[in-house]
């Protein structure tokens, strides 16, 4: 017994040495390593819950909920964040749990705070596969990837500088199942628009866990410039009907279907409020009236500054619905 134990301890020491050398050679988001933890939300799934707010110098672009799935033989990552440095921090958290290789990465949508950490996953395993919808991959190839690199650099005052673009190559289709060791990840493509177009939600089948990406946010309002309010509400209804045990939103704490219902209710109330009021008042006049219908959400992060923007966008969507 003594020799195998010494061999195992030696392996751990070599792993620690390699991580230290790697971290010294390449930037890593050390604050994310030191001040956040990978929370176990089911038997096989861990989530690093990001802070509220937009990317800035202080958070170095870390605002989303990167997750990882540990099977019997390999690890899959979902939405590895905004930069190489954040991706390396996620890997450091993974190595606290397991030394199994990261072989697959699943991307929910094209917004850079969710997938620009891909290169760190490729650094850890050159053979790793990256999965996304066909539309997301097309967007990234047609300039969205480069644009998001620049946007993150600007918003974080170059805290994300040096990030290398790794665009997914594996196209997922509706209800496609991908094996991760002894586990199964199932793709649920969003029909139409919710937060954006070309979104995918990923289910860890054995654990009944659903990564929603930004189709759901928990107690936090997010940008809807590319989204649909009724589309978001419809997608929330779809999620509830799936009967998932655990919901991992794109932002905010992991929870159950109650967070899905709340988010869908907010989207519905904004849109229906706009449709009711738009014949009698301008968009900027609607906010107090609609806010009265949203008292349950008054403490959500960024409510004060975001509700007015959502109302304006909902007005535009309602007008387009007329044609």
Automatic annotation (TrEMBL):
State the signal peptide span: 1-23
Keyword Iron, does the record have it? Answer: no
Q: Which SUPFAM superfamilies does UniProt cross-reference here?
A: Metallo-hydrolase/oxidoreductase
Its family remark reads: Belongs to the metallo-beta-lactamase superfamily. Class-B beta-lactamase family.
Name by which UniProt lists this protein: MBL fold metallo-hydrolase
The protein's matches in InterPro entries, at most eight in alphabetical order, are given as: Metallo-B-lactamas (IPR001279), NDM-1-like (IPR050855), RibonucZ/Hydroxyglut_hydro (IPR036866)
Keywords from UniProt, A to Z, are: Signal
Where is the Metallo-beta-lactamase domain positioned along the sequence? 63-251
Q: Does the keyword Signal apply?
A: yes
Pfam families per UniProt: Lactamase_B (PF00753)
Under Gene3D superfamilies, the record lists: Ribonuclease Z/Hydroxyacylglutathione hydrolase-like
